[in-house]
Design brief:
With 201 residues, the chain is mainly beta. The chain has two helices and ten strands; from the N terminus they run E-E-H-E-E-E-H-E-E-E-E-E. Strand 4 and strand 5 form a beta hairpin. The chain is globular.
């Protein structure tokens, strides 16, 4: 294949905001600034230290909103409510005045950590979580690593509790999360540089 004959990389729409590193905010957004309400207002106030009006991106898009992201070095799951940009402090300018920059963030409704016992009994195949009503968090857009599916189900947990939950569905691969629970199934101790056949998955 001749490189100069390949189709050029499609450009972002004119109204999109390129955030770099292959992240972008697309056109769908509020026409006017709005005042965040409820848990979103509290989350933004905790993030900035003040409450401000914002303009929301993708507030009503009916597509998969569930994402996997890094929060304080830990893999977490959440449902994106919307995206926005916040003016955050960025040192001082040449005159010593406070400088600011735009930070692209997502407001996400958090899921709990997966049920520990069920995760272990299923050999890390079933990550079953509860949606934490009212637990809204502000995260950096670039902390999002994957778009995932969260499928409703009503399991009976090893503890004997039957309740409404969601289980994680994502593309298979080597990046599937362990959520901090050590795998202790068959082959867990066989990851050594030896000549024996290891029972690994």
């Amino acid at each position: 294949m001749v490189p100069n004959l390949e189709d050029p990389k499609p450009a972002l729409p004119q109204t999109a905001i390129d955030l770099g590193d292959r992240y972008a905010l697309l056109r769908k957004r509020d026409l006017y600034d709005v005042q965040p309400q409820g848990g979103a207002s509290q989350a933004i106030q905790e993030y900035l230290g003040v409450n401000v009006k914002i303009r929301r991106w993708a507030p009503k898009v009916r597509v998969s909103r569930n994402v996997k992201f890094l929060l304080d070095g830990e893999i977490r799951l959440g449902e994106v409510l919307y995206f926005t940009r916040l003016a955050v402090e960025d040192g001082h300018d040449e005159d010593g005045a406070q400088a600011f920059r735009w930070q692209a963030v997502a407001l996400v409704l958090m899921y709990s950590h997966p049920d520990h016992e069920l995760l272990e009994l299923s050999f890390h195949a079933t990550s079953s979580c509860k949606q934490l009503e009212g637990d809204i968090c502000v995260i950096d857009v670039k902390s999002i690593t994957d778009v995932v599916g969260m499928v409703p189900h009503r399991p009976t947990l090893p503890s004997g509790v039957t309740e409404d939950r969601y289980f994680l569905v994502e593309k298979p691969g080597l990046d599937i999360a362990t959520f901090g629970v050590a795998y202790e199934g068959p082959g867990a101790d066989d990851d050594e540089d030896d000549e024996a056949e290891d029972n690994e998955y």
